Amino acid sequence: MRHPPRSGLLLVAAAVALVGTAVAPVVTAQGATPACSVEYSVTSQWDNGFQGAVKITNNTTAVSSWSLSFDFANGQKVGQGWNAKWSQSGTTVTAANESYNGSLATGASVSAGFLASRSGTNAVPTSFKLNGTTCNADAEPSPPPTEPPAGGTAPALHVSGNKLVDADGRNRRLLGVNRSGGEFMCVQGRGIWDGPVDDAALRAIADWKANTVRIPLNEECWLGLSGIKPEYAGANYIAAVKDLVTRAEAHGLTPILDLHWTYGQYTGNSAGCSDVHATCQKPMPDMQYTPSFWSSVASTFKADPAVVFDLFNEPYPDRATSTTTQAWQCWKDGGTCPGIGYQVAGMQDLVDAVRSTGAKNVVMAGGLAYSNDLGEWLTYRPADPTGNLVAAYHVYNFNTCANESCWNSTLAPVAAQVPLMAGEIGENTCSHSFVDRVMKWFDDRGLSYLGWTWNTWDCSSGPSLISNYDGTPTSYGTGLRDHLRALNP
């Protein structure tokens, strides 16, 4: 949904505790300020890899360029990173500034992150040098994070033909709601979630007989990029997402992790904002950060086949390009796309980023026109070696493809070959006559759909399913609630 960046402004964010972080703290010797200080953290960790971050502070004369070096003790290997040029020779890792962040004034800080492989122990480096000068006198490392316990009742999923099935081969329709907040609260500096996501709140979703919750995310917050408040970024953000996934699964809800807002400046046709940062819906994901985001997310959840990945919320390269063919080519292959000023990561790049980690989780890819156009989806669909690819579709009463004739001509051929899921359905009428039609068409074909959104906003502008997080529906939400309960009495 193309909601405004400040949606939900009057709501108070749930407090999120700092958990699962391994940090090399800054310690000064005998009251002296070190020439430089480095905070190193393991923001996420899995069986054969981890995500790390560094925050560098310059306490001496301003510099126009910088290079940080440190050594790994347990054979760790840096694979890719962001906000620095990362390299490794033997055990020594070097992070050199990018062209846009080389200047570091006295007292100024810069943050960067990386993905790395590991085997066994993952000790925190004990010594850091900035431009050859030793930082952090007497820094002491703390242990890396432990993984949350496995469990929950949401089923493992995979694709079989044009159906989603569980581990026993039984068909599984994903029917439920979106839970907005994780895409905008953090980047606005107001929290991580918009409203409660505790057990009571998730139980209320399950009480509607929903079996799925889609969770929009922000790539800058997950990666802990500069400009995001640290309490809402990096390790804190990842820990909050992990916790919500665990809780959702415990209530039998399939969690769909959706990349909603991304980096990259776009000021062309239908631009949602002029900001380079992830503060609105961009026409396509960016090559600078999005593959790293999906490598990290996939590595974090690849041991949990109940988690589904929605690669990019609502692509709209067709608003920037001159032809539909150019738009679909941009959608699949990325690169330099007409009308888009940043390097684009195509859907194939993102599938490759997920699969390169060994993750076999089900992956969703939405089409053009804010995921409302699947007309050429089969022609341009990305290759997936696991075969676990789902076509994603969004539909509202104000969209172009919003009637049975269009669904029959463009959606039915796709649904005949691959699983088709309406990741967002809704209407801005505070009623449910339109979504009733959508649900009937999808029900008749055994397809999946999720209502937008489980947030207490104005149903005419949200649109919002609820007026209270105890599950009290709006007049619009009543349609979805009663329908889900009728399907599963």
- Helicity, as a percent range: 10-25%
Q: How far apart, in Å, are the first and last alpha carbons?
A: 29 Å
Strand pairing plus helix content: what structural class? alpha/beta
> Could you list the spans in which at least 5 consecutive residues all have pLDDT below 50?
4-31, 139-151
Q: What is the number of E strands?
A: 20
Strand order of the largest sheet: 13-14-15-16-17-18-19-20
Shape designation:
globular
The biggest sheet, with number of strands, parallel, antiparallel or mixed sense and barrel status, is: 8 strands, parallel, barrel
How large is the count of helical segments?
Answer: 11
Residue-averaged pLDDT, rounded? 90
Strand-residue fraction?
A: 15-25%
Radius of gyration of CA atoms, rounded to a whole number:
23 Å
Polypeptide structure, described:
By secondary structure, the chain is α/β, with parallel strands linked by helices. It is 22% helix and 23% strand. It has helices at residues 199-207, 219-223, 235-250, 290-301, 324-333, 347-355, 368-371, 377-380, 404-415, 433-444, 475-487, and strands at residues 22-24, 36-46, 49-58, 67-71, 77-82, 85-89, 92-96, 109-117, 128-130, 133-135, 157-160, 163-166, 175-178, 212-218, 254-261, 308-310, 363-366, 389-396, 420-426, 448-451. Strand 2 and strand 3 form a beta hairpin. It starts with 21 loop residues before the first strand and ends with a helix. Mean pLDDT is 90; it is low at 4-31 and 139-151.
